[in-house]
Structure formats: C-alpha cells, structure tokens
Design goal:
alpha/beta; Purple Acid Phosphatase, chain A, domain 2; 7-stranded mixed sheet; 6-stranded mixed sheet; 13 strands; 31% helix
Length: 273
C-alpha cells in the first residue's frame, strides 16, 4: 500500500481516564486498533543542530509515513518560549509534522522538560495532538506506558522540586504572560543553568530509579514502559512478582538515533538511519 499517496483510516482510539501516576497526575488511556506505532523523543531541535532537523524531516518522509501513529515523547525542541515565538526551525518542524498528518499518520506528543510550554496553538498548526505525561496506550491487548522520563529520576530531588514548580498551571501562565523577548532570554538562561547543573551531578542521579519505574507500572497494571530523557537508549528486562517487565529507553537525535516500533505483536528498539 502506498502510504504517501492515499489518506489512511485514522486510528480507532478511545480516550478515557485511567489510573493515577505516583507523582499525582492523571493517565490518559488510548485503545489503539492499529497495526504500527512509532515512538521517538529528545530531538532537541534548534538552530545550532541543523543535522537533527534534517534527520527528522527525512524520518517524516520515510519510516513515519508507514506508521499509523507517531508518538513524540518530549523534548522535540531544545527550548520553547511560547507558541508565538516562531523561527525557521519551528516552521520547518511544523511543516514536517503537518505533511505527515495529511498523509494519514496521526502524530501525538507529550511534553519534555525542554518544551513543556508548547501549547495547543502550535499543535493545531501541525495537526498534532498533545497528551498528558504519562499516557497509557492499549495496543493489541498490551498495556504500554509512555512518558518523557524526567519524572522518574527521583534521586535528583532538586530537579523534581523545580519540575513541580514549573509545571504548576499558574506558574506556566505567568511565564507565558511575559513579553516574548523576556521569555526567550529566560529560556536561554535556563538552558545554560541546566548544562552547568548537570555537569556537576553524578550520572546515577540523572537516571530513572527502579522504584519509580515499578510504581508507575504497578499503578497501571502494565509490563512495558517507553521513555526518553536520559539519552541512554537500551532495552531493560527484569523479573517482578507480577511477571516479566520491560523498559525501552529512546535515543537522542545526534548523528543518528534509536526509536521504538510496535508492530506485528512486537515492540522493538531500532536504529535510524
């Protein structure tokens, strides 16, 4: 079937409230009556990384056209100061996603720590749906949990406090109410502060904890978690009293990446290109 020349049937999803994340946010449930799902994260698109943007555009013209749904699990952009802040990178990204949705691939995104201010205006321009973090997807009878991954790095106490503060709707509204230039300057300072802070943290602090992962899987009665954030692509398998569990970590977009595919009863971590 030529996926680029004909519009496919939209995925048969039924959104409903499911369980509760250990951190306190609700989990949306999507029942996918589709055959192929793709998962990517951590593109960190900005003007200083033209290769990553070109790679994403190729991905949207290539593998993504054969998917029923593409899930972007946060940090699509290196920073996001508001939907009213447009540049060549955001325009090209919007065009790539819009082209994909017109071709029949649904695109759904949840926020990362870099682009949590990305809102409905940009999503609407792309034809993309925004999802809560975490999101539960029921695919072929299997329960898959999707999240960015930063909420699971619970050893980093200072970051978790900052995350809860910045994700407060009142704080987000106050940030977005500031003048555009001020927001852009704040975003730049935040990136610099993050790089400095991370350079002085032990590697283990910036990784997810087993307790947080199991708590999330327990809460949703799931056995598979897909996330990004840590830039440590891998497949982790372990035994739990409730059965075998798996955690797929997606790759950052540098010279190449690792993305996940759910198809024909299997969920795999694959290289691109």
């Amino acid at each position: 079937m030529d996926h680029t020349s004909s519009r496919r049937r939209r995925p048969d999803d039924r959104g409903s409230a499911a369980g509760k994340h250990p951190a306190g946010c609700r989990t949306a449930e999507y029942r996918c009556g589709v055959s192929r799902l793709l998962f990517i994260s951590d593109l960190h698109l900005d003007a200083s990384r033209p290769h990553a943007l070109s790679l994403f555009e190729r991905f949207c013209r290539g593998p993504a056209t054969h998917a029923d749904v593409l899930y972007i699990l946060g940090d699509l952009f290196e920073a996001w100061a508001g939907d009213d802040v447009e540049d060549a990178v955001s325009q090209r990204t919007a065009q790539a996603i819009a082209g994909l949705t017109v071709a029949g691939t649904a695109v759904r995104m949840l926020h990362g720590n870099r682009d949590f201010l990305l809102g409905s205006a940009f999503a609407k321009r792309c034809g993309m749906e925004l999802l809560p973090d975490p999101t539960l997807v029921v695919w072929e009878g299997r329960r898959l949990i999707l999240c960015h991954g930063d909420s699971l790095c619970t050893r980093d106490v200072d970051y978790q406090v900052l995350r809860r503060t910045l994700r407060d709707p009142k704080v987000m509204a106050a940030l977005l109410a500031r003048p555009r230039g001020e927001r852009e300057a704040l975003a730049q300072r935040a990136r610099e502060a993050s790089r400095t802070a991370n350079a002085n943290k032990p590697e283990m602090i910036m990784d997810v904890t087993a307790a947080a992962v199991d708590a999330l899987l327990d809460a949703e009665n799931a056995a598979l978690l897909i996330h990004g954030h840590t830039h440590r692509p891998d497949l982790h398998v372990w035994q739990h009293p409730r059965g075998t569990r798996r955690r797929i970590v997606l790759g950052a977009w540098e010279q190449g990446t690792r993305f996940a595919q759910a198809h024909a009863g299997e969920v795999q971590l694959l290289p691109y290109p």
